[in-house]
UniProtKB/TrEMBL annotation:
Assigned keywords, A-Z: Amino-acid biosynthesis, Coiled coil, Cysteine biosynthesis, Pyridoxal phosphate, Transferase
Natural source organism: Chitinophaga niabensis
Any one Pfam family match given in the protein's UniProt record, by short name: PALP
EC number: 2.5.1.47
CDD domains attached to this UniProt entry: CBS_like
Protein name, UniProt field: Cysteine synthase
Reactions performed catalytically: O-acetyl-L-serine + hydrogen sulfide = L-cysteine + acetate
Cofactor(s) needed by this chain: pyridoxal 5'-phosphate
Length: 294
C-alpha cells in the first residue's frame, strides 16, 4: 500500500520503442515521466526543492513561494506545495496552454500571466521583481542544486537499473537542464563512456520545454562540460515525431519529448549498435487545446 502521493514520484516505466526506430541494432527506450502523479518529470525536481528547503529550515508551512515556470514545473510545484501546506504563486507567459493554468489553480496555486512577447525571460523578471519587494521565497529551479540532485538520486539510478547497466547514450530536452545535469552526474560515475546528448531548438523554433537561453539567462545549474553533444531540433521535426509517437507507439506526450525522440532516431543512424534512453517529459493531454495534434 502506498502511504502518500509523494511515494509515487519517480520509478517511472521505461518502454522500448517498436515501430519508430530505424536501426535494428540500436534499442531506443522511452522513459515515461508522464506517469509521475503530477504528470511530468518536474515532479521530481519540485519534490526535491520543496523538501530540501523545508529540511534546511529555509521555508516552513505558510511561507509564500513564487516561481517562474513554462508550465510543468508549476503544476508539479503546485501539487507538492499543497501537500506541505505551502502557498505558492506561479508566473508564466500568457501563451501557456489553458490546461496548465487550470491544473495549477486546481492544486490551489495563484497564477500570474506575463506578456507572451517577453517569453520565459519576462516571467523570470517579474518573479524576481516581486521577490525583491519582500514577502516571498523563491526556490529558483534554474539555480537550485536540489533540481539536478533529485535526478542524480532517482532518475539516473533508475535508468542504470532498468537497462542492467547497458545504456550507451542518454538523450534529453534542455530547459532548466536539471534532468540532464543530474542524470549525467550519475551515469558518468557508473561509466564515463556513456554519451550525454542535450536537445535545443533551431533558430526560430518554439518547442515548449526546450530552450536555447540567452547567456544572461543561462541556468546557473548548467555545466556545459557535463554534456558530450547538443543536437538542434526544428519545431516541425519535433511536431511530426510527437504525432508519430502517439499514433505508432501509443506514447502520448508533448513536443519536447518528440524532439528528444527525433534526436535519438537521428543519433541511432550513426551507431553500429547501442542502447539509447530518452526522456518523455510529460503527457500529451496537457496540449489538447493547442494545435500540436491538429
Amino acid at each position: 500500500m502506498t502511504r502518500s502521493v509523494l511515494d509515487l514520484v519517480g520509478n517511472t516505466p521505461m518502454v522500448a520503442l517498436q515501430r519508430i526506430p530505424e536501426n535494428p541494432n540500436v534499442t531506443i527506450y522511452a522513459k515515461l515521466e508522464g506517469n509521475n502523479p503530477g504528470g511530468s518529470v518536474k515532479d521530481r525536481a519540485a519534490y526535491g526543492m520543496i523538501k530540501g528547503a523545508l529540511d534546511r529550515g529555509e521555508i516552513k508551512p505558510g511561507t509564500k513561494l513564487i516561481e517562474a515556470t513554462s508550465g510543468n514545473t508549476g503544476i508539479a510545484l503546485a501539487m507538492i506545495a499543497s501537500l506541505f501546506s505551502v502557498p505558492i504563486e506561479l508566473v508564466m507567459p500568457e501563451d501557456a496552454t489553458r490546461e496548465r493554468v487550470l491544473s495549477m489553480e486546481a492544486f490551489g496555486a495563484k497564477v500570474i500571466l506575463t506578456p507572451k512577447e517577453q517569453s520565459m525571460e519576462g516571467a523570470i523578471d517579474y518573479a524576481h521583481a516581486q521577490l525583491a519587494k519582500g514577502g516571498y521565497h523563491m526556490l529558483n529551479q534554474f539555480a537550485n542544486p536540489d533540481n539536478y540532485g533529485m535526478h542524480y538520486r532517482t532518475t539516473g539510478p533508475e535508468i542504470w537499473r532498468d537497462t542492467d547497466g547497458g545504456v550507451t547514450h542518454f538523450v534529453s530536452a534542455m530547459g532548466t537542464t536539471g534532468t540532464i545535469m543530474g542524470v549525467s552526474r550519475f551515469l558518468k560515475e557508473k561509466n564515463n563512456n556513456i554519451q550525454i546528448v542535450g536537445c535545443q531548438p533551431t533558430e526560430g523554433s518554439k518547442i515548449p520545454g526546450i530552450r536555447k537561453w540567452p547567456e544572461e539567462y543561462l541556468p546557473k545549474i548548467f555545466e556545459r562540460q557535463r554534456i558530450d553533444r547538443t543536437m538542434d531540433i526544428a519545431e516541425e521535426e519535433a511536431r511530426i515525431m510527437t504525432n508519430r509517437l502517439a499514433r505508432e507507439e501509443a506514447v502520448f506526450c508533448g513536443m519536447s519529448s518528440g524532439g528528444a525522440v527525433a534526436a535519438a532516431v537521428r543519433l541511432s543512424r550513426e551507431l553500429e549498435s547501442g542502447v539509447i534512453v530518452c526522456i518523455i517529459c510529460d503527457r500529451g493531454d496537457r496540449y489538447l487545446s493547442s494545435d500540436l495534434f491538429g
